[in-house]
C-alpha cells in the first residue's frame, strides 16, 4: 500500500517536471516577448497568440513554411514508407544471391554519421540545380536504414504459408505484396509512418544546407532563422515552436500504441 | 478434392514445392530491394566515397589543389578540433551513462505492477521524444535564460542564486546535457521497457521462490536480461552524441568561448560558413573513424557475453 503510493506519487511528480516545458511553451506562445521575459515569468496563458502568429507571417511567411513542412513530410512519409517496406519484404521473405551482404551494406548506414555525406550531397544538389527544391530534401533519405530494418523485422513474422497460398492461387508478386503482405502489416506501417513523419518534420541539418531561401524553408529552419538578432521576437519564435510541436504531440497521442510497439519490434529482436 | 488430386500430379506439385522456398520469378526479390539499394548507393555510398576524395584536397575559394594528407595533418594540430572532441567526450562520459541509468530505473518503475496511472505516466515520459531538436533546444534556451528564465525564477523562489546557464562554460555544458536527457531518456526507457516485458516471467518466479529481495532480483535477473538492449542503447547514444549538432547550434551556438563546440558544429562551420569543403570532409572522416572505433570497443566489451 505505502510502496504503491510512494512509487506512483514520485513518478507523478517527475512526469510533471518533464511536462513543464510543454506547458510553459503553450503559455509563453500566447504572450508578447516583453511578457515572456518579465519577472515573474508568465504562468498562465495570455491573449497574444494571434499577434505572435501574425508577426511570424510577416517576418518569415509562416503559412508558406508550414505548407512546405507539411508537403515535404507527407511526400517523404509515403515514398520512404514504400521504399523501406518493399526492401524490408525483399530481405525478409526471399532468399537470393547477395542478400546478406546487401542488407549489411544498408545497415552500415545506421552507424555512418550523416555529417560525412553533407558536403558531397550539397555539391550534388548544386550540380543538379536542386537546391531549394522538395526533391533535394526528400530523395537522399528515402532508403532509411532504420525503416528497412524495422520492416524486415515485422514482415519476417508473417507466416510463409500465407505467401505460398497466394502464389498457388496465381497471385502475381506485386499483387501479393499489395494484397497479402501489406494488410496484416498495418500496425507496423503505422509505426513506420509516424517515425518517418517525425524524422522529416523535425529534421534540421540537411534542410539547413539544402534550402537557401526563406520561401523554401521548413518550420525548424524558419524558427531557428528568427533567433540571434538583438530584437529577436521570442513570442513569435515560441508560437512557431508550439505550432511545430503540438500537431506532432497530438499525432503521437493518437497513435502512440502503434508507435511504441513498432519501435519495440525493431529494438527487441536480436 | 479434384483440386487436391490435380496438385498431387507430378509436375504441378513439384513447382508448388519449389515456390514455397524460393518464388518462381528469380528477379522478384531484386525488384523489391532495388529502389532502396539504388537510392542508398546514389545518396549515401557515393557521397561517402566522394567525401574521402574531397578530404584530400585543399580548398582555396573555388580552387581545389590535391594536398594528400594535409587536411588530416592540419586537423591533428588544430586546437579547436581537440576542444570539440573533448566537449563531446565529456558529454559521452557523463551524460550518456547518467541518462541510460535513469532510463533503466524509469523502465523498471514503469514495469512495476504497483504503479498506478500507468498510461498517463508512460505517455508523459515519451512526449519529449516527439519534440523536434530545434524546437526543444530553443525552448530550453529560453527556459534557462540566466536573467529572466523560468528555471532561475523558480530556483530563486527556493532561495537559490541565479545559475549562469549558457553563459558559463561548465553550466552551458550542463544545460546541453539537461536538454539531451529530457529529450532522450523516455526513448531509451521504451526500449528497456520492451525488453523487460519480453523477459520470461518464470525467472522472477524462481528468484522469488529462492527468497531473493528486490535488489537481488534486479541484480541477477533484470540486469542480465537487459544486457543486449544496453548495448543497443549505448551504441545508438554514442553515435548520436558524437554527431551532436542541433542542440548546441540552437542553445549556445557552440559558446561561450567554444565550451559547447562539438565536432558536428565545427564541421558545419568549416563546410558551410567558410566553404572549406576539404577540411570539413577531413573532420567528417575523423568523426566516422572515431564512431567506428568506439562501436567496435563497445561491441567487444558488451556484445559477446549473453
TrEMBL record, chain A:
InterPro entries per UniProt: MetI-like (IPR000515), MetI-like_sf (IPR035906)
Top-level division of the source organism's lineage: Bacteria
Its placement in the membrane is given as: Multi-pass membrane protein
Q: Where in the cell is it found?
A: Cell membrane
Q: Which GO terms describe its biological process?
A: transmembrane transport
For this protein, the record's Gene3D superfamilies field holds:
MetI-like
Q: Which residues cross the membrane?
A: 62-90, 102-122, 134-155, 176-198, 234-255
| Signal peptide span | none
What keywords tag this UniProt record?
Answer: Cell membrane, Membrane, Transmembrane, Transmembrane helix, Transport
Q: Which SUPFAM superfamilies match?
A: MetI-like
Q: Tell me the ranges covered by the ABC transmembrane type-1 domain, including all copies.
A: 66-255
Q: Which GO terms describe its cellular component?
A: plasma membrane
Member of which family? Answer: Belongs to the binding-protein-dependent transport system permease family.
**Protein name per its UniProtKB record:** Lactose/L-arabinose transport system permease protein
From which source organism is this entry? Nonomuraea muscovyensis
- Taxonomic placement: Bacteria, Bacillati, Actinomycetota, Actinomycetes, Streptosporangiales
Automatic annotation (TrEMBL), chain B:
Q: Does the keyword Nucleotide-binding apply?
A: no
Pfam families hit by this protein? BPD_transp_1
Q: How does it sit in the membrane?
A: Multi-pass membrane protein
Its subcellular locations are: Cell membrane
Q: Which UniProt keywords apply?
A: Cell membrane, Membrane, Transmembrane, Transmembrane helix, Transport
Per the record, the domain of life is: Bacteria
Designated name of the protein: Lactose/L-arabinose transport system permease protein
Say which species the protein is native to.
Answer: Nonomuraea muscovyensis
